[in-house]
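Sequence in, structure out.
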Amino acid sequence: MGDPRKIRRAFLRPGHPWQKERIEQENALLKEYGLKNKTEIWKTTSQLRTFANQAKKLIAATTQQSKVEKTQLLQRLNRLGLIKQDAKLDDVLTITLKDLLERRLQTILVRKGLAKTMNQSRQFITHEHVMIANKKMTRPSHTVRTEEEQAIQFAQTSPLTNTEHPARTVEAKK
């Protein structure tokens, strides 16, 4: 039967709990991007750290496998909209936390004008009003790929499909 699976965190907490500057930056990000808690920031930071560590490892390596992994990493980050098509491996190290937060579904809904605020977009997503390519999305933290961005819409069963709905913004009535 085996041992039960050990649940591990998908992120690292800050090394020191009381750093005023870090806490102020995190609070500003919470407000700007409408995040639920600081855990979402830490998960995104860990994802960013993973990309950077992988890029550093690939810069130093010269094997045939490292060349394959290099192209795969660059293609993945290009699909996510974090780097350009002709980017180099050094460009991966310039990706910031804000770049990753801008690719979240919650943020893109507001930027496209489908929601008035970040909190409203989070509510639309968790209440299953948002679809990407005929699939209902329930995670505001979903990282939207560039080809998915055009397929974001309200679900057919959602009352938000009506352009006269009071929650819809003026820009979305086009």
